[in-house]
Specification:
- This protein starts with a strand and ends in a 5-residue tail after the last helix.
- With 394 residues, it is an alpha/beta fold.
- The chain has helices spanning 13-24, 37-42, 51-59, 64-69, 89-92, 103-116, 237-248, 299-320, 324-351, 360-376, 378-389; strands spanning 2-3, 6-9, 29-32, 48-49, 71-73, 76-80, 83-87, 98-100, 120-122, 125-131, 139-144, 147-152, 155-158, 176-191, 201-204, 210-214, 220-226, 261-275, 278-279, 282-284, 290-291.
- An eight-stranded mixed β-sheet has the order 7-6-15-16-17-14-18-21.
- The protein is 36% helix and 27% strand.
- α1 (13-24) packs parallel to α6 (103-116), α8 packs antiparallel against α9 and α10 crosses α11 (378-389).
- The structure holds adenosine-5-diphosphoribose.
- Residues 9-15, 32-35, 40, 45-46, 103, 125, 128, 159-161, 163-165, 286-287, 299-300, 303 line the site of adenosine-5-diphosphoribose (APR).
Length: 394
Protein backbone atom coordinates (compact mmCIF):
# COMPACT_ATOMS: atom_id res chain seq x y z
CA UNK A 1 0.00 0.00 0.00
CA UNK A 2 1.28 3.48 -0.92
CA UNK A 3 1.90 5.95 1.92
CA UNK A 4 1.92 9.71 2.20
CA UNK A 5 1.51 12.29 4.92
CA UNK A 6 -1.54 14.09 3.51
CA UNK A 7 -4.01 12.49 1.13
CA UNK A 8 -5.75 15.34 -0.73
CA UNK A 9 -9.06 14.57 -2.42
CA UNK A 10 -9.76 17.03 -5.25
CA UNK A 11 -7.52 19.07 -7.57
CA UNK A 12 -9.40 22.36 -7.38
CA UNK A 13 -7.91 25.56 -5.96
CA UNK A 14 -8.19 24.32 -2.35
CA UNK A 15 -6.46 20.97 -2.93
CA UNK A 16 -3.72 22.24 -5.21
CA UNK A 17 -2.80 25.28 -3.12
CA UNK A 18 -2.68 23.04 -0.04
CA UNK A 19 -0.36 20.60 -1.83
CA UNK A 20 2.06 23.37 -2.80
CA UNK A 21 2.09 25.06 0.62
CA UNK A 22 2.77 21.74 2.33
CA UNK A 23 5.56 20.86 -0.10
CA UNK A 24 7.22 24.23 0.55
CA UNK A 25 7.56 23.13 4.18
CA UNK A 26 8.74 19.63 3.32
CA UNK A 27 5.41 17.86 3.96
CA UNK A 28 4.52 15.24 1.37
CA UNK A 29 1.06 14.83 -0.12
CA UNK A 30 -0.73 13.05 -2.95
CA UNK A 31 -3.66 14.60 -4.84
CA UNK A 32 -6.52 12.42 -6.14
CA UNK A 33 -8.80 13.96 -8.76
CA UNK A 34 -11.90 12.34 -10.23
CA UNK A 35 -11.79 14.19 -13.55
CA UNK A 36 -9.16 14.19 -16.30
CA UNK A 37 -6.47 16.85 -16.39
CA UNK A 38 -7.90 18.45 -19.52
CA UNK A 39 -11.36 18.58 -17.96
CA UNK A 40 -10.26 20.50 -14.86
CA UNK A 41 -8.05 22.80 -16.92
CA UNK A 42 -11.02 23.82 -19.10
CA UNK A 43 -13.85 23.97 -16.59
CA UNK A 44 -15.22 27.54 -16.54
CA UNK A 45 -15.71 28.81 -12.99
CA UNK A 46 -14.92 31.99 -11.06
CA UNK A 47 -12.25 34.48 -12.01
CA UNK A 48 -11.75 37.22 -9.44
CA UNK A 49 -8.82 36.94 -7.05
CA UNK A 50 -8.58 38.93 -3.87
CA UNK A 51 -5.45 40.88 -3.09
CA UNK A 52 -4.59 38.42 -0.26
CA UNK A 53 -5.06 35.40 -2.52
CA UNK A 54 -2.64 36.86 -5.06
CA UNK A 55 -0.14 37.76 -2.33
CA UNK A 56 -0.19 34.21 -1.01
CA UNK A 57 0.28 32.68 -4.45
CA UNK A 58 3.10 35.11 -5.13
CA UNK A 59 4.85 34.33 -1.85
CA UNK A 60 4.92 30.65 -2.86
CA UNK A 61 6.10 31.19 -6.44
CA UNK A 62 2.73 30.25 -7.91
CA UNK A 63 1.76 33.55 -9.51
CA UNK A 64 4.13 34.08 -12.42
CA UNK A 65 1.58 33.48 -15.18
CA UNK A 66 -1.17 35.12 -13.21
CA UNK A 67 0.94 38.26 -12.90
CA UNK A 68 1.76 38.22 -16.61
CA UNK A 69 -1.78 37.57 -17.84
CA UNK A 70 -4.17 38.67 -15.08
CA UNK A 71 -5.74 42.10 -15.17
CA UNK A 72 -5.41 44.38 -12.17
CA UNK A 73 -8.69 45.99 -11.06
CA UNK A 74 -9.15 48.92 -8.71
CA UNK A 75 -12.83 49.72 -8.97
CA UNK A 76 -16.25 48.28 -9.65
CA UNK A 77 -19.34 49.78 -11.25
CA UNK A 78 -22.82 49.65 -9.77
CA UNK A 79 -25.71 50.50 -12.11
CA UNK A 80 -29.22 51.37 -11.16
CA UNK A 81 -31.85 53.70 -12.65
CA UNK A 82 -29.77 53.77 -15.83
CA UNK A 83 -26.97 55.56 -13.99
CA UNK A 84 -23.38 54.42 -13.41
CA UNK A 85 -21.62 54.66 -10.05
CA UNK A 86 -17.99 53.72 -9.59
CA UNK A 87 -16.71 52.45 -6.27
CA UNK A 88 -12.95 52.97 -6.24
CA UNK A 89 -12.25 50.14 -3.81
CA UNK A 90 -8.48 50.33 -4.09
CA UNK A 91 -8.47 54.00 -3.05
CA UNK A 92 -10.89 53.19 -0.25
CA UNK A 93 -8.82 50.27 1.06
CA UNK A 94 -5.19 51.28 1.21
CA UNK A 95 -4.41 50.71 -2.47
CA UNK A 96 -5.23 47.00 -2.39
CA UNK A 97 -6.48 45.71 -5.73
CA UNK A 98 -8.07 42.62 -7.27
CA UNK A 99 -6.90 40.51 -10.19
CA UNK A 100 -9.15 39.04 -12.88
CA UNK A 101 -7.75 35.62 -13.82
CA UNK A 102 -9.91 32.65 -14.78
CA UNK A 103 -10.03 29.85 -12.21
CA UNK A 104 -9.26 27.18 -14.81
CA UNK A 105 -6.09 29.06 -15.76
CA UNK A 106 -5.02 29.14 -12.13
CA UNK A 107 -5.81 25.43 -11.77
CA UNK A 108 -3.76 24.70 -14.91
CA UNK A 109 -0.81 26.70 -13.49
CA UNK A 110 -0.98 24.90 -10.15
CA UNK A 111 -1.10 21.47 -11.82
CA UNK A 112 1.80 22.24 -14.15
CA UNK A 113 3.95 23.52 -11.27
CA UNK A 114 2.94 20.58 -9.07
CA UNK A 115 3.97 18.02 -11.66
CA UNK A 116 7.18 19.97 -12.37
CA UNK A 117 8.20 19.73 -8.72
CA UNK A 118 7.55 15.99 -8.71
CA UNK A 119 4.29 16.12 -6.75
CA UNK A 120 2.07 13.04 -6.70
CA UNK A 121 -1.25 13.39 -8.48
CA UNK A 122 -3.71 10.88 -9.95
CA UNK A 123 -6.35 12.03 -12.42
CA UNK A 124 -9.47 10.03 -13.23
CA UNK A 125 -9.36 8.53 -9.74
CA UNK A 126 -12.71 6.75 -9.45
CA UNK A 127 -14.73 5.46 -6.53
CA UNK A 128 -12.75 7.32 -3.87
CA UNK A 129 -13.71 6.17 -0.36
CA UNK A 130 -12.29 7.24 3.01
CA UNK A 131 -11.62 4.82 5.87
CA UNK A 132 -10.40 4.92 9.46
CA UNK A 133 -10.83 8.67 9.82
CA UNK A 134 -11.17 8.44 13.59
CA UNK A 135 -7.98 6.40 13.98
CA UNK A 136 -4.28 7.25 13.63
CA UNK A 137 -3.94 5.84 10.11
CA UNK A 138 -6.70 6.85 7.76
CA UNK A 139 -6.76 5.27 4.34
CA UNK A 140 -8.07 6.37 0.96
CA UNK A 141 -9.23 3.68 -1.48
CA UNK A 142 -9.81 4.47 -5.13
CA UNK A 143 -9.45 3.02 -8.62
CA UNK A 144 -7.56 4.19 -11.68
CA UNK A 145 -8.35 2.50 -14.97
CA UNK A 146 -10.34 -0.14 -13.10
CA UNK A 147 -7.41 -1.07 -10.81
CA UNK A 148 -7.97 -0.67 -7.07
CA UNK A 149 -5.43 1.44 -5.15
CA UNK A 150 -4.92 2.17 -1.45
CA UNK A 151 -3.22 5.18 0.04
CA UNK A 152 -2.37 5.25 3.74
CA UNK A 153 -2.07 8.77 5.19
CA UNK A 154 -1.63 10.65 8.43
CA UNK A 155 -4.26 13.21 7.42
CA UNK A 156 -6.95 13.45 4.77
CA UNK A 157 -7.84 16.83 3.22
CA UNK A 158 -11.36 16.85 1.75
CA UNK A 159 -10.97 19.43 -1.04
CA UNK A 160 -13.43 17.79 -3.41
CA UNK A 161 -16.00 20.55 -3.75
CA UNK A 162 -19.69 20.61 -2.96
CA UNK A 163 -20.47 17.30 -4.70
CA UNK A 164 -17.43 15.41 -3.45
CA UNK A 165 -17.29 12.32 -1.24
CA UNK A 166 -15.41 13.70 1.75
CA UNK A 167 -18.22 15.52 3.52
CA UNK A 168 -20.50 12.51 2.99
CA UNK A 169 -17.95 10.26 4.73
CA UNK A 170 -18.67 12.03 8.02
CA UNK A 171 -21.48 10.48 10.08
CA UNK A 172 -24.52 12.75 9.78
CA UNK A 173 -24.78 13.31 13.52
CA UNK A 174 -21.27 14.75 13.69
CA UNK A 175 -22.06 17.83 11.58
CA UNK A 176 -24.35 20.79 11.88
CA UNK A 177 -25.53 21.72 8.39
CA UNK A 178 -26.70 25.23 7.48
CA UNK A 179 -28.28 25.20 4.06
CA UNK A 180 -30.49 27.82 2.51
CA UNK A 181 -31.44 28.12 -1.14
CA UNK A 182 -31.85 31.71 -2.28
CA UNK A 183 -34.82 32.77 -4.42
CA UNK A 184 -32.41 33.70 -7.24
CA UNK A 185 -30.46 31.89 -9.91
CA UNK A 186 -28.00 33.05 -12.56
CA UNK A 187 -27.90 32.39 -16.26
CA UNK A 188 -24.12 32.33 -16.72
CA UNK A 189 -22.91 33.16 -20.22
CA UNK A 190 -19.44 32.94 -21.72
CA UNK A 191 -19.28 34.88 -25.00
CA UNK A 192 -16.63 35.42 -27.62
CA UNK A 193 -16.69 39.18 -27.54
CA UNK A 194 -14.39 41.92 -26.31
CA UNK A 195 -15.58 43.42 -23.02
CA UNK A 196 -17.71 46.57 -23.23
CA UNK A 197 -16.26 47.82 -19.96
CA UNK A 198 -12.92 48.13 -18.18
CA UNK A 199 -14.38 47.25 -14.80
CA UNK A 200 -16.86 44.67 -13.55
CA UNK A 201 -20.48 45.89 -13.65
CA UNK A 202 -23.23 44.87 -11.24
CA UNK A 203 -26.58 46.19 -12.50
CA UNK A 204 -29.73 46.32 -10.40
CA UNK A 205 -32.72 46.52 -12.76
CA UNK A 206 -36.48 46.10 -12.41
CA UNK A 207 -36.25 43.07 -14.75
CA UNK A 208 -33.55 41.50 -12.60
CA UNK A 209 -29.82 41.64 -11.96
CA UNK A 210 -27.31 41.71 -14.81
CA UNK A 211 -23.57 41.36 -14.43
CA UNK A 212 -20.79 42.09 -16.90
CA UNK A 213 -17.63 40.33 -15.77
CA UNK A 214 -14.27 40.15 -17.50
CA UNK A 215 -12.12 37.31 -18.72
CA UNK A 216 -9.82 38.46 -21.54
CA UNK A 217 -9.64 40.87 -24.45
CA UNK A 218 -11.66 38.48 -26.63
CA UNK A 219 -13.93 36.63 -24.15
CA UNK A 220 -16.43 38.11 -21.68
CA UNK A 221 -18.63 36.63 -18.97
CA UNK A 222 -22.19 37.77 -18.24
CA UNK A 223 -24.82 36.85 -15.68
CA UNK A 224 -28.59 37.37 -15.72
CA UNK A 225 -30.89 36.87 -12.77
CA UNK A 226 -33.57 34.25 -13.27
CA UNK A 227 -35.76 32.00 -11.12
CA UNK A 228 -34.29 28.88 -9.50
CA UNK A 229 -34.85 25.73 -11.61
CA UNK A 230 -35.36 27.75 -14.81
CA UNK A 231 -34.10 25.45 -17.61
CA UNK A 232 -31.33 26.85 -19.83
CA UNK A 233 -33.53 25.92 -22.84
CA UNK A 234 -35.69 28.92 -21.98
CA UNK A 235 -32.66 31.16 -22.69
CA UNK A 236 -31.95 31.16 -26.44
CA UNK A 237 -29.01 33.42 -27.33
CA UNK A 238 -31.28 36.16 -28.73
CA UNK A 239 -33.11 36.38 -25.40
CA UNK A 240 -29.82 36.55 -23.49
CA UNK A 241 -28.58 39.50 -25.54
CA UNK A 242 -31.93 41.30 -25.46
CA UNK A 243 -32.07 41.00 -21.66
CA UNK A 244 -28.46 42.09 -21.24
CA UNK A 245 -29.11 45.09 -23.49
CA UNK A 246 -32.16 46.10 -21.44
CA UNK A 247 -30.75 45.52 -17.98
CA UNK A 248 -27.34 47.09 -18.64
CA UNK A 249 -28.68 50.13 -20.57
CA UNK A 250 -27.61 53.56 -19.32
CA UNK A 251 -28.87 57.05 -20.06
CA UNK A 252 -25.43 58.16 -21.32
CA UNK A 253 -25.31 56.10 -24.48
CA UNK A 254 -23.05 53.25 -23.27
CA UNK A 255 -23.01 50.38 -25.78
CA UNK A 256 -22.92 46.62 -25.14
CA UNK A 257 -21.05 44.60 -27.76
CA UNK A 258 -22.52 41.23 -28.72
CA UNK A 259 -20.82 38.06 -29.95
CA UNK A 260 -21.23 34.29 -30.23
CA UNK A 261 -22.22 32.51 -27.02
CA UNK A 262 -19.60 29.85 -26.21
CA UNK A 263 -21.19 28.35 -23.09
CA UNK A 264 -24.28 28.97 -20.99
CA UNK A 265 -25.89 27.38 -17.95
CA UNK A 266 -28.18 28.13 -15.02
CA UNK A 267 -26.79 28.03 -11.48
CA UNK A 268 -28.90 28.11 -8.35
CA UNK A 269 -27.67 30.04 -5.36
CA UNK A 270 -27.29 28.83 -1.84
CA UNK A 271 -25.67 29.66 1.46
CA UNK A 272 -24.25 26.43 2.84
CA UNK A 273 -21.90 25.76 5.76
CA UNK A 274 -21.07 22.63 7.73
CA UNK A 275 -19.70 22.86 11.22
CA UNK A 276 -17.17 21.74 12.27
CA UNK A 277 -15.00 21.47 9.15
CA UNK A 278 -13.28 18.45 10.67
CA UNK A 279 -13.97 14.86 11.64
CA UNK A 280 -11.12 12.91 13.23
CA UNK A 281 -8.21 13.17 10.79
CA UNK A 282 -10.35 14.44 7.92
CA UNK A 283 -10.24 18.21 7.33
CA UNK A 284 -12.65 19.81 4.86
CA UNK A 285 -11.53 22.83 2.84
CA UNK A 286 -13.23 25.04 0.23
CA UNK A 287 -16.55 24.19 -1.41
CA UNK A 288 -16.58 20.80 0.35
CA UNK A 289 -17.42 22.69 3.55
CA UNK A 290 -19.18 25.84 2.37
CA UNK A 291 -20.89 27.50 -0.57
CA UNK A 292 -21.47 31.25 -0.71
CA UNK A 293 -23.85 32.99 -3.11
CA UNK A 294 -21.68 33.88 -6.13
CA UNK A 295 -22.14 37.68 -6.04
CA UNK A 296 -18.74 39.13 -5.20
CA UNK A 297 -16.92 35.96 -6.34
CA UNK A 298 -15.73 34.84 -2.94
CA UNK A 299 -15.79 31.01 -3.29
CA UNK A 300 -12.35 30.60 -4.80
CA UNK A 301 -10.78 33.04 -2.34
CA UNK A 302 -12.34 31.27 0.62
CA UNK A 303 -11.04 27.94 -0.66
CA UNK A 304 -7.50 29.34 -0.82
CA UNK A 305 -7.85 30.88 2.67
CA UNK A 306 -8.84 27.46 4.08
CA UNK A 307 -5.89 25.82 2.36
CA UNK A 308 -3.51 28.31 3.95
CA UNK A 309 -4.84 27.71 7.46
CA UNK A 310 -4.79 23.94 6.98
CA UNK A 311 -1.26 23.90 5.57
CA UNK A 312 0.07 25.93 8.53
CA UNK A 313 -1.71 23.65 11.00
CA UNK A 314 -0.45 20.40 9.45
CA UNK A 315 3.09 21.73 9.18
CA UNK A 316 3.07 22.65 12.87
CA UNK A 317 1.81 19.18 13.78
CA UNK A 318 4.32 17.35 11.59
CA UNK A 319 7.39 19.44 12.32
CA UNK A 320 6.85 20.47 15.94
CA UNK A 321 4.25 17.97 17.23
CA UNK A 322 2.13 21.01 17.99
CA UNK A 323 -1.54 20.08 17.55
CA UNK A 324 -2.97 23.50 18.42
CA UNK A 325 -3.36 24.61 14.79
CA UNK A 326 -5.29 21.49 13.84
CA UNK A 327 -7.45 21.74 16.96
CA UNK A 328 -8.32 25.33 16.02
CA UNK A 329 -8.59 24.70 12.25
CA UNK A 330 -12.36 24.63 12.02
CA UNK A 331 -12.97 27.64 14.30
CA UNK A 332 -10.27 29.68 12.56
CA UNK A 333 -11.74 29.02 9.10
CA UNK A 334 -15.36 29.41 10.16
CA UNK A 335 -14.82 32.96 11.42
CA UNK A 336 -13.85 34.01 7.90
CA UNK A 337 -16.48 31.75 6.30
CA UNK A 338 -19.31 33.40 8.22
CA UNK A 339 -18.00 36.91 7.55
CA UNK A 340 -17.88 36.11 3.86
CA UNK A 341 -21.29 34.41 3.95
CA UNK A 342 -22.75 37.56 5.42
CA UNK A 343 -21.08 39.83 2.85
CA UNK A 344 -21.97 37.62 -0.12
CA UNK A 345 -25.57 37.37 1.03
CA UNK A 346 -25.79 41.13 1.65
CA UNK A 347 -24.38 41.91 -1.78
CA UNK A 348 -26.69 39.38 -3.42
CA UNK A 349 -29.78 40.99 -1.89
CA UNK A 350 -28.40 44.43 -2.79
CA UNK A 351 -28.19 43.88 -6.54
CA UNK A 352 -30.97 41.39 -7.32
CA UNK A 353 -34.61 42.09 -7.98
CA UNK A 354 -36.47 41.31 -4.77
CA UNK A 355 -39.05 38.62 -5.62
CA UNK A 356 -42.75 39.56 -5.54
CA UNK A 357 -44.54 38.76 -2.30
CA UNK A 358 -45.55 40.29 1.01
CA UNK A 359 -43.23 43.15 1.96
CA UNK A 360 -41.54 43.25 -1.46
CA UNK A 361 -42.26 46.95 -2.04
CA UNK A 362 -40.80 47.93 1.31
CA UNK A 363 -37.73 45.76 0.73
CA UNK A 364 -37.19 47.31 -2.70
CA UNK A 365 -37.27 50.81 -1.21
CA UNK A 366 -34.84 49.75 1.49
CA UNK A 367 -32.60 48.23 -1.16
CA UNK A 368 -32.62 51.50 -3.10
CA UNK A 369 -31.72 53.46 0.04
CA UNK A 370 -28.81 51.06 0.62
CA UNK A 371 -27.55 51.42 -2.95
CA UNK A 372 -27.68 55.21 -2.76
CA UNK A 373 -25.90 55.23 0.59
CA UNK A 374 -23.19 52.90 -0.69
CA UNK A 375 -22.56 55.11 -3.72
CA UNK A 376 -22.62 58.40 -1.78
CA UNK A 377 -20.86 57.65 1.51
CA UNK A 378 -17.09 57.11 1.75
CA UNK A 379 -17.65 55.24 5.03
CA UNK A 380 -20.08 52.82 3.39
CA UNK A 381 -17.74 52.55 0.41
CA UNK A 382 -14.79 51.73 2.69
CA UNK A 383 -16.72 48.95 4.42
CA UNK A 384 -17.72 47.51 1.04
CA UNK A 385 -14.12 47.78 -0.19
CA UNK A 386 -12.72 45.97 2.84
CA UNK A 387 -15.05 43.03 2.31
CA UNK A 388 -14.92 42.98 -1.49
CA UNK A 389 -11.14 43.17 -1.79
CA UNK A 390 -10.83 40.64 1.04
CA UNK A 391 -10.87 41.31 4.73
CA UNK A 392 -7.45 40.77 6.29
CA UNK A 393 -8.22 39.11 9.60
CA UNK A 394 -11.53 38.17 11.05
N1 LIG B 1 -12.97 12.19 -5.95
C1 LIG B 1 -11.94 12.96 -6.37
N2 LIG B 1 -12.08 14.23 -6.78
C2 LIG B 1 -13.30 14.75 -6.72
C3 LIG B 1 -14.42 14.02 -6.25
C4 LIG B 1 -14.21 12.69 -5.86
N3 LIG B 1 -15.21 11.92 -5.45
N4 LIG B 1 -15.51 14.82 -6.30
C5 LIG B 1 -15.10 16.00 -6.78
N5 LIG B 1 -13.76 15.98 -7.04
C6 LIG B 1 -12.93 17.04 -7.59
C7 LIG B 1 -13.62 17.91 -8.63
O1 LIG B 1 -13.55 17.32 -9.93
C8 LIG B 1 -12.82 19.20 -8.55
O2 LIG B 1 -11.70 19.20 -9.43
O3 LIG B 1 -12.62 17.96 -6.55
C9 LIG B 1 -12.32 19.25 -7.11
C10 LIG B 1 -13.01 20.31 -6.30
O4 LIG B 1 -12.68 21.58 -6.81
P1 LIG B 1 -13.65 22.85 -6.72
O5 LIG B 1 -15.05 22.42 -6.93
O6 LIG B 1 -13.06 23.88 -7.61
O7 LIG B 1 -13.58 23.29 -5.17
P2 LIG B 1 -12.52 24.14 -4.34
O8 LIG B 1 -11.12 23.73 -4.61
O9 LIG B 1 -13.05 24.13 -2.96
O10 LIG B 1 -12.63 25.60 -4.93
C11 LIG B 1 -13.77 26.42 -4.74
O11 LIG B 1 -14.54 26.34 -6.94
O12 LIG B 1 -16.84 25.97 -6.96
C12 LIG B 1 -15.81 26.77 -7.38
O13 LIG B 1 -16.26 28.88 -7.85
C13 LIG B 1 -16.09 28.03 -6.78
O14 LIG B 1 -14.29 29.33 -6.76
C14 LIG B 1 -14.89 28.34 -6.00
C15 LIG B 1 -13.98 27.19 -5.99
Amino acid sequence: MARTCVGIVGAGPAGLVLAHLLADQGVESVVLERQSRSHVERRVRAGLLEHRTVELLEAHGLAERLRARGQVHRGVELRFDGRRHRIAYADLYGGRHMVVYAQQELVADLIRLWIARGGGIAFEAERVTLHGLEGERPEIRYAVGGRGERLACDFVAGCDGFHGVSRGSIPAGALTVHDQRLPFAWVGVLAEVAPSTDEIIYANHARGFAGHMLRSSTVSRFYLQTEPDDPIESWPDERIWAELQRRLATSDGWKLREGPVLEKNVTDMRSFVVEPMQFGRLFLAGDAAHIVPPTGAKGLNLAVADARVLADAIVRQVRASDSSGLAAYSDTCLRRVWRVQEFSSWMTWLVHRIPDGPGADLRRRLQRAQLEYLCASPAAGASFAENYVGIADV
